[in-house]
Structure formats: structure tokens, C-alpha cells
Amino acid sequence: MRALVIEDEDTVAQDVAQALGSAGFVVDIAHEGEDAWYKGSVEDYDVAVLDLGLPRIDGLSVLKRWRAAQRIFPVLILSARNDWTEKVAGIEAGADDYLGKPFEMGELIARVRGLVRRAAGRASSTIEVGPLLLDTHRMSATYAGRPIRLSQLEFRFLDYLAHQSGRAVSAGELAEHLYGADEPGDSNAIEALVVRLRRKIGPQVIETRRGFGYLLAGDG
Amino acid sequence: MPRSLRVRLLLGAAIAIFLALAAAWVAMTLLFERHIERRIEADLVREGLQLAAALSIAPDGAPALEQQPGDARFFEPASGLYWQVSTPAGIVSSRSLWDQHLPRAGDADSLQWKPRVIDGPFNQPLLVVERFIRPEHAGSDVLIQLGHEQESLDEASEEFGEELAVFLALLWLILAAAAWVQVELGLRPLRHIRDQVATLKRNPRQRMAAAHVAEIEPLTLAINELADARERDLSRARRRAADLAHGLKTPLAALSAQSRRAREAGATDAADGLDRAIGAATSAIEGELARSRAAAIRAAPGGDSTIALPVIESLVGVVEQTEFGARLVFEVNIPDALQVPVASEDLLEIVGALIENAARFARRRVRITGEPSGAGVLIVEDDGPGIGPEKIAEVLLRGGRLDEAGSGHGLGLAIANDLVDATRGEITLLRSELGGLKVIVAWRGDASPADNA
After folding, report:
1. Burial A92-125 (b: 16+ CB within 10 A, else e)
2. B214, B248, B265, B391: least surrounded by Cβ within 10 Å?
3. Residue of chain A nearest B245, judged by CA positions
4. Do A102 and A69 share a domain, yes or no?
């Protein structure tokens, strides 16, 4: 596992690097934006921890350049600017998570692990159901060529339906898959999720079979 | 001095016009009087020259006329038009003088026609022209006098004066009306400025339109510069607060690294102390940032408006990525066109704090609803455990219990409450039908900037 830590304050950079090292990562450090951009462009990292206030090129620009060049490794932004305007700008620029300074090292490690787990361990494959294309590596989707930003839950929902070869799946079964067998079924949450996805992607993406459940359009 | 500029200008114009017209009246009446007098003097002199031409002196020195002037009034007694020729030896005069005589000349030596006003015969004030002539063969000077009664002149000039007064009074009214129109037109740009300043007061980002009037232009420019300076100060204050936070947070992160090292080296007590200090400093910074943001909102008298849905969708997009948000369904039921009276960056902070808080406690669902009642209502609810009514006041308290352990509704709600209060809204906490907390943010519809002190 390789991680890139970009942080101009050396004490913090060394500390994060050491903690990630203990967690099993091989860590590179960049202290300024240009170096970070270069390293991220030529090396294959599994995750990057990115400070926003950097010399030379600011963190947000580095991130945008990576994403524009199809560098898709997960990025966790670590910034002193902890307001929502900054968070929204960071996520919309392509970051996968955002942590404000000062932070608990335990939380940082947990989040980095979460990001890596989400991205790794999956074959880089795509599933196509009608106009819907799911990218299991990036956990992203396009619908008729239009990119759709999905939450983890939404992706798992679509992924599960996509693997059913046109079978209608009941809300109870979906709840069990999404929330685990020990949790009581919650069809309200599933219904809300369907509403949300239809709104995000298009009203026709998920069909309802009365008495049976849900299936992806074009999969029946 | 009246306070109204309009009344002042109108009064000033009316008085000035009145004084000018009065002076004109006096001058014109005088000129008219002198004009008639000159005409009459000229007539009298002409008659006098005819008298002189017809004059002969008898050997005894008495004057005699070969031919008398023809004007009928010379023959009618007390007609007001007289002539008289006198030498020391005798006097001839017009019949109109009857048995009276014109008094002797004042200036005994004058060989020029001289006018003067005298108390004449028949109790008539007379305008008299007179001169001496010195015929070649005569032994002494001959005095020729002609008189014209003054009364008709006075009457004529009095009549003229009255008519002129009526005309000038009319002229005064017309000029005063013109001055009124001028004042109204002149003050119109000022009224325009007042309206624009009022909108500028409501919305500090607004600027005044360029003035059409050259004299007003410096004023609008100055006001715009003032507004720019005020906005710059405001954003500088915000930036400095954020810079201060940034400046403090990275050292705090470094300090927390030191604390970890201390802990690894076995100095657990020292590390605990450091962590407590770091936690307190972090809370203080977050609280102060929120407070300075709220203060900046209060100082800026509002007038902002933001379409809620895109802001909330982008917030949900962020929270969906977080550890808590990733497993939740977000129901967003907000009309596309719903606007709330808050600047978009402030709406981000308010709703961001509320959604994050809801996501932290939700089991499966977070519902965000918008309603167009009042100036806009946003509702954030979750299906988590909720909070008891006895705790509500406590969590809304500004800078109240801080969310140190990551459990309990804490700083997020307090910050949101502070910001909502600053934007003239109100937060209500209820139990949601989903089971958890229901946070209602309602902005008041009567948001007028004047009483937002």
C-alpha cells in the first residue's frame, strides 16, 4: 500500500507519515504543490492525504489537475479551513473525504483505511445495464454517458440490483443486503433511497414491480 | 431657516425675483416720468421758438407778437398750457393765463432753455421752460416762458405705475412657478440617490447606478467608494479571522503530533494534558470563527437571497462521502425555486452543520424539506435517538456544550443556531416522525434591514 502525504508543516507531515507507516503504508511526503502534483502524476498511490494551504500550487489546484489527468486514487483533504464552503469545493474538485485540523490521528487512519478499502479489493470492472454503467473500482456510475455521483449506499443498492439479472428484488431483501441480516427490515428507507436515485439519475432508472420489488430498467 | 432645501430655494428665488421686479418697477416708472417730461419740454421749446420768431419789440421796449401760437389751449383760460413774454417794459401772455402771470425766472441770466417746476397760477403746479433772448435792437433782455400743468403728467405716470405693477406681479408669479419647476427638476437626482442609498443599505453588495447628472456623479462615486471600503473591511475581517484560525490550527496539529510522541515515550499524563489543551483551543477557535461569521452577517444588513436546492444538494454530496453519511439515505424534498434570505456561503454553514449533525445520529435516513412559508423554511430531520426536551435549551446555547467526544448534539447545533439568529431566522427543535430530531429553521418574512441592529 502506498500513500502520499502532502503537508507543508513538517512536524505534521512526519507525524502523519509515521502513523500511516505503522498502519502498513509505504509513505512519500511532499511539502509543496508542484512536487505533490508531480509525484501524484507519475507514481501509483493507493491514497493521498492532501493539505490545501500549500506553497507554489494550492492543494485544490493539485487535486483538480490530478482528476483532469484521470489520476483517480482516493484523496483525503486535511485542511485548517474547516468551513462548508471549503468542504464543498474540495469534494466537488474530486476529493473523497475531508478532515479538519487539528485532527485525531486515529480518525485520520480510520478514514484513510476506509478510502483504501472502498477503492481497492475490487476488480476494475464495469457492469452495464441498459444505459446505466457502474464502475465497481471507482464506485461511480454514468447514465447514458452522463457521470453520476453516488454515495456508498446508493452504489451498493444499484450494484446489488445490477447483479440480479433482471430479477425483481423486494425491499426487505434489499434492506437485509444493505443494512445486514440482524437489523430489522426498513422498507421506508429503501423507498426513500429509490426516490433519491430516481431523482439523481432519472425517473425511469428503477422500475417497481408491484408485489415483487425493484429492478433496473432494461434488465427485465 | 427652514430645514427643507426645496422651501429654502423656493423662498430665496421668490424673494430675489420680487426684489428685482420691484427695482424694475421703480426704475421704469421714473424713466417713464422723465420721458413724458422731456416730450413736453420739447413741445414747449418748439412753441417758445415760434414765439421768439414772431417777437417784436416796440420802441418803448414792450414786447409785441406778430402772430400767436396756434394751440387752442393757449386761448382757453386756466387750460394748463401757457406762454408769457416779458420785458422790463411790459408783458404779453396767452389768453389762458387770464389775469395771472408766470413768476419771474429763477436763473436771470440764462440764454438756454431751462425747465423747472413751480407753483403756478390757478393753484396748478407747472412745468415751466424759460429763457432770455437778447434781440439786436432791443435795450434789454426778453424773457420767454412757457408752462404746462404738472397734474396730468403725474396722473399718467401713476396710471403707468399701476399697470406696470399688475404686469410685474403676474411676471413674478410666472417666474416663481418657473423657479419651482427648476427646483423640482434640480432636486430629482437627490431623491433618486436617496432611493438608491436605501437599497444599498439593504444589500451591501449593491452599488449605485452611474448618475446622469455631472454634479451628482461625484456624490454617487463617493458613496460607492464608501460601500466598497465597507465591504472590503468586512471581508478583510472575515479573512483575518479565517487566517488566524488557519495560523493556529496547523501548530495545534503539530502539537498533537508532539503529544502522540510523548504518549509513545510513556509520558501519558503529559500527553493527556496536551490533548485537553488542544481540544480546548480547537473548540475556542471553532466557536470564535462561528461568532465572527455571525457578527459579520449581523454587520452586513442582509438583502441576500439564495436558491436553496443546489446548495443543499452540494452539501448532501459532501456528507454522503463522510463516514457517517455513506450509509444513509438522504431525502431532499425542496421546491426547485425555493429561495431563502441568506447569502449562499452562510446557508452552507447553517445547513452543513445541521445535516452533518443529523447524519451523525441518523440510523438510516435524513430528510431535508423546504417550504415557501414566511421568507423560507428548511427542515432537517433524522431517524436517530433524538434529544429530550430538557436538553434542547442547552444544545442551542451559544458556545454551549462542545462536541468533544463526537457524541451528543453539540457545537454544530449551537453554531447553526447562532448563524440562523444572525440571519433573522429562528431554530425550533422538535421530535421527528422519523423518530429522531427535527430541526426547523424559519426565516421571518418581514426582514427589513433597518431594525436589524
Report:
1. ebbbbbbbbbbbebeebbebbbbbbebbeeeeee
2. B214
3. A80
4. yes
